[in-house]
Amino acid sequence: MKRTTQIKPDIKKIKEKAKERTTRTSLTLVLAIFVFLILLSAIAMTALALYLLTKVGILVDVEGDLRLGSVLGFMSLISLVIGGALVFFSSRIPLKPINNLINKMNRLAAGDYNTRLDFGGIISSHPAIKEISASFNTMAEELENTELLRNDFINNFSHEFKTPIVSITGFANLLEKGNLTEEQKQQYLRSIREESIRLSTMATNVLNLTKVENQTILTDVSRFNVSEQVRSAVLLLEGKWAKKNIDLQLDFDEFEIEANEELLKEVWINLIDNAVKFVPRCGTVELEVTDIGDHLCVKISNTGSEIPPEKQEKIFNKFYQADESHATQGNGIGLAIVKRIVELHKGEVSVNSGNGMTAFTVTLPKQQ
Description:
Elements: H1 11-55, H2 68-90, H3 92-109, H4 127-177, H5 182-214, E1 221-225, H6 226-236, H7 238-243, E2 247-252, E3 256-260, H8 261-278, E4 284-292, E5 295-303, H9 309-312, H10 334-344, E6 348-354, E7 357-365
Parallel strand pairs: 2-4
Antiparallel strand pairs: 1-3, 4-5, 5-7, 6-7
Helix pairs in contact: 1-2, 1-4, 4-5, 5-10, 6-8, 8-10
């Protein structure tokens, strides 16, 4: 029986939102106090001016009494002059960080993704100002990374598409010329079929990534045997791991989970295919499923070349390939799909590489 997930309130996020509201309210109070001090200064200076004018006899008549009309007139004039001067000179203080923010935003909009926001001075120590700086710098950093990924995608994906297209065109031209043996014809036809499948796989991966990226709520949740699903994914890829004479080790009992069965199947296929792709001939691929309380942990590891630490943080990014030489087939989409599907299930995926072994670990809640 299928059912959709229920969204439970996240206490931690609620507390963070409350803290944000507190810091922003405190910033409003600081600005209000600043305006109040300006008004207080204007009143004080006006009162001082009236006192001095009274002392010198300008605002008193012959009998020594205050002239009300003159007092009101001078009070209005002096308040206007003093208040205007104070606002003119003091307004630069609160407007300086705003101007700084606008300038940085304009630079960012113009494509300068290296720009970072730093207000400086005492105001930068306020929690709300820190939040603005952190949010702006995070946005700039993400835009910079996105631009780099976009450029990498254009280069890498163009290369990945161009290679099979050139192969297909070349073999088709050879077949068109004729004068080939039957064995050569069959070989060229097999190559055309393999390259066509490769192109189709890349296009399908892009569509799958777009689909899961646009999905925000996990639907079609059912309870099923995840151990059986992992074994089915292994059998599905038998043609690949059998060619390399891989020592395949499956060490797990039977476990059930609540999840989207079709999406989770994509996770195991991508991770196992990735392990088979990078394991050397006659190497070892090991799969483990363990129970850790409210979660299940699926670990897929393989012997072979290691992933450098500086690349481990990037391999889940779209279109990123740790193998920059393109010696292995791939387009940097599979692991991005894995990460997004795991996130939809409120789980985590991580990689650990060292001592001639690379392991991907997926941790998922048993119930949604």
